[in-house]
């Protein structure tokens, strides 16, 4: 099934503002590479503790 996502002009403006805020705060994108896909694990910005968020329990 394929669906179309439509954003109102206001929502588009909000997304642009969010993009700019994240880009200005030195974002880090965590990802995993498999043979047939790349998985985005998280998008971290600002003072977020991405190292703690990515730790696995042993």
Would you write up a description of this structure?
Helices cover 36% and strands 22% of the residues. By secondary structure, it is α+β, with helices and mostly antiparallel strands. The protein has one domain (9-54). The longest helix has 16 residues, at 9-24. It is flat.
Question: What key phrases describe this protein's structure?
Answer:
2 helices
Task: Give a short summary of the structure.
This protein is α+β, with helices and mostly antiparallel strands. It is built from two helices and two strands; from the N terminus they run αββα.
β-strand amount? 15-25%
- Main-sheet strand order equals 1-2
**H-E string:** HEEH
* Number of alpha- plus pi-helical segments: 2
Largest sheet: 2 strands, antiparallel
What is the topological layout?
Blueprint (H helix, E strand, L loop, with lengths): L8 H16 L3 E6 L4 E7 L5 H5 L4
Antiparallel strand pairs: 1-2
């Amino acid at each position: 099934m394929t669906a179309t996502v439509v954003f109102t002009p206001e929502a588009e403006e909000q997304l642009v503002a969010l993009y700019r805020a994240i880009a200005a705060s030195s974002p880090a994108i965590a990802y995993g590479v498999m043979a047939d896909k790349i998985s985005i694990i998280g998008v971290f910005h600002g003072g977020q503790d991405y190292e703690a968020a990515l730790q696995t329990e042993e």
